[in-house]
Amino acid sequence: MKRSKQTRGEIEAKQRKAAAWHHTLAQRAAERRRLRDYKIALARDEVPVVTSQLAPSNSYSIPDFVERGTYRPEPFVCKDCGVAEVWTPLQQKWWYETAKGDVFTKAVRCRACRTKERVRKSAARRVHLEGLARKKKPSAAS
After folding, report:
1. Which pLDDT tens digit goes with each residue over 27-74?
2. What is this structure's pTM?
């Protein structure tokens, strides 16, 4: 026979479920706000800087984009192929805040040249490691 009163465990389970639901709703609302702010910034071709997400820097000076409070499109010329490119605000935001890149660095290569450079470096690393492996084999056989 079932009692009419709820047990403490049932009450706590309902409270946990309600708290989880409220947390989910808060996350959704925050995501909608971020998306709205993102669309507004894109319309102005600027993206706001979140200084708490930047990597620490041991410098007394402050980068321009931090003083300004927004990332702006920055034109640059690729140092490998010489093509004029634009470093977009979203690319800057990713570099500085997500990848934690140094705040005093700028884009210097276009996407194609970055890919080529990455392939070149990985091939050089592979050749170097193969050479080290060949050096170790004769001494292990002795």
Report:
1. 999 989 878 877 777 677 788 889 899 998 888 899 999 988 889 999
2. 0.60
Query: Nearest 5°: phi and psi at 75?
Result: -75, 145
In degrees and rounded to multiples of 5, residue 73 shows phi and psi of -60, 135
Q: How many C-alpha atoms does 56 have within 13 Å on its Cβ side?
A: 1
Q: Which residues pair with 47 in a beta bridge?
A: 71
What φ, ψ does residue 37 adopt, rounded to 5°? -60, -40
Please answer whether residues 74 and 29 qualify as being in contact, where contact means their C-beta atoms are separated by less than 8 angstroms.
no
Residue in the block written with tokens 């080290």: 132
Residue 17 C-alpha from the chain's centroid = 32
Three-class SS of residue 36? helix
In this prediction, residue 136 carries a pLDDT of 87
Q: Which residue bears the tokens 């050096």?
A: 135
Other C-beta atoms lying within 10 Å of the C-beta of residue 104: 9
User: Which pLDDT score, from 0 to 100, does residue 138 have?
Assistant: 66
